[in-house]
Amino acid sequence: MAASRSRTGDMPKKIGSSAIMWLLAALYGFPLLWFVVSSFKPGGELFSYPLTFWPKNPTLKGYTDAWTSFDFPGYLINTMIVAIAATLLTIMVSAACGYALAKYGNWWLKIFAGCILATTMLPTETILAPLFLVVRNLGLYNSLSGVVIPAVITATGTFMFRQFFVTVPNDLLEAARIDGSSELSTFFRIMLPLSRPIVLTLAIFSFQWRWNEYLWPLIILNEPSQFTLQIGIAGIVGANNVNWSILISASVLSMVPLVAIYLVFQKYVMNADINAGLKD
Amino acid sequence: MVDSANRATPRWWPRRRHNSYTVAPLILISVNLLLFLTFFVWPAIIGLAYSFTSYTGVGDAPWVGLENYRELIGDTDFYAALLRTLIYTACVVPLMFVMSLGIAYLLVSPYAKGKPIARVIFFLPWLISPIIAGVIWRWLFGENFGLVNFVITELGGDPVSWQSNGDLSLMIVVIVATWAGTAFNMLLFIAALKNVPVSYYEAADLDGANAWQKFRNITLPAIAPTSFIVVLLSTLHAMKEYTYFVAVNDGGPGTENNLIVQYIYETGFKRTQMGYASAASFVLLLILVIVAVLQLIASRRKGS
């Protein structure tokens, strides 16, 4: 049908759509580009009018300053620990729970599914103060586990796995049962490997959530040695005299790991069929 | 054959019956169940309890009854934060909706060229943390050093006070939030748009419908469930925004752009009025529930 339409009639549409799309892309891409380009400018050039787009004397001094003048490596390691630990736990817990919700018919599972969905209505922000008290009473205050553990349960992850396992034929499960495979080993040996695309998608989601999280780590972490990158960078922003040279370079550095991971796993994120119980 | 075997060996009976698997699903959900009880149910209960006390985070929690709620009703700072939150939400949700649907529409349209690269550009802001997204735009809109004011003065205008004017500051946060939030909603819309049957459009073409008519009468109704989810999630998200405001202007100028979560954070953790902050949290929760229910009712009515 589309092919039978006259090609000349499509030309204005093609030009129009492409023009609007690329105009918007420029609008969305420019702030980031300007920021990254600025990170290579020496401190004085950042503020000297007239501003030029490309740095006149490109330098990496902002980056070396960012690395040495505040505890960037320490914050980076803390952030890595939080993001990796939370991601691994989130995947295991969400896969197990999503599988149970998809493949067993017990009445209490249906209630629990409703409870998990309700957590999207009860975001951390609405229970900020009491959640802090609970975590403190558990002895997790000022520790990275206090940041990781409450974040492990996610409705998005659980329902992503549930949706996936619903589409896996029950025959597979029945066959495994007839072969004498126990329920849990069926899950670990057959079902979990099958759900690889969901595992990877949720891995990227979870990694991004935890890498970029600000408010909760700010509340839980008290000592600078425990800070994550977002708290460290927010500390520069909050200073009376913002050191833009360090701020910009540190910000760019902090984005590198996520962008690298995204570019590797791009196709999983882009094809993610996410539509139930979304929450960050 | 299998049936007779089952009947012959009593061991098989309980396992073949409906609901006979209890232990395995219980083990599978156990960690999530524990986390749910510890980090949602427990805080919700003690939060409600503390909201009737003047707890400060340490020591006793003296019972004050409804005093916190009564005080909250007369608290002008709380109202200011609530009003600012509502204004922010009313600005950001429609803008976010239009931008993410528009971009998703272009990205699935057969006419636009260079879609794979454009898609990556639109998606990159999703990777950027709220703090850094705020910093990026703060850098662009700096009053004395930003590119935007530089361009304005080059064109003969006066520098605009992006930081010291509260409404302009709010506008920048709206832009930041839209910029950073588009990607995720765009993904939802792309999935929905791809599921609209092509035959509908072909039939409309035969009837001579133009592009706007097709969009209005075919696309919008077909993606209505996704639109509902996007509006609901964006609204709930906007109502609890905090980080963008910290990064763009620290909730300022002054306390003008302190939203409700920032208000809760300041009272609960900086002024250590945990009881009062818990009461404010419950009011926020109540508002979120009302918003969600209202939107649910609205979408049901539209659907029927």
TrEMBL record, chain A:
**Bilayer-spanning residue ranges:** 20-40, 75-99, 111-135, 147-165, 186-207, 244-265
How does this protein lie in the membrane? Multi-pass membrane protein
Its localization reads: Cell membrane
User: Which residue spans adopt a coiled-coil conformation according to this UniProt entry?
Assistant: none
> What GO biological process term is on the record, naming one?
transmembrane transport
Provide this UniProt record's keywords sorted from A to Z: Cell membrane, Membrane, Transmembrane, Transmembrane helix, Transport
The residues covered by the ABC transmembrane type-1 domain are 76-265
Coarsely, its chief localization is membrane
The UniProt entry, under Gene3D superfamilies, shows: MetI-like (1.10.3720.10)
User: GO CC terms on record?
Assistant: plasma membrane
In terms of CDD domains, this protein maps to: TM_PBP2
| Stored InterPro entries | MetI-like, MetI-like_sf
- The answer to whether the entry has keyword Transmembrane helix is yes
Q: Which family does it belong to?
A: Belongs to the binding-protein-dependent transport system permease family.
Name this protein carries in UniProt = Alpha-1,4-digalacturonate transport system permease protein
Automatic annotation (TrEMBL), chain B:
Which terms are listed as keywords in the entry? Cell membrane, Membrane, Transmembrane, Transmembrane helix, Transport
Top-level taxon: Bacteria
Q: Which GO terms describe its cellular component?
A: plasma membrane
Task: Write the protein's name.
Answer: Carbohydrate ABC transporter membrane protein 1 (CUT1 family)
**Short name of one Pfam family:** BPD_transp_1
Organism, by scientific name, is Actinoplanes xinjiangensis
Q: Where is the ABC transmembrane type-1 domain?
A: 82-295
**Per the annotation, which location comes first and is thus the protein's main one?**
membrane
Does Cell membrane appear among the keywords? yes
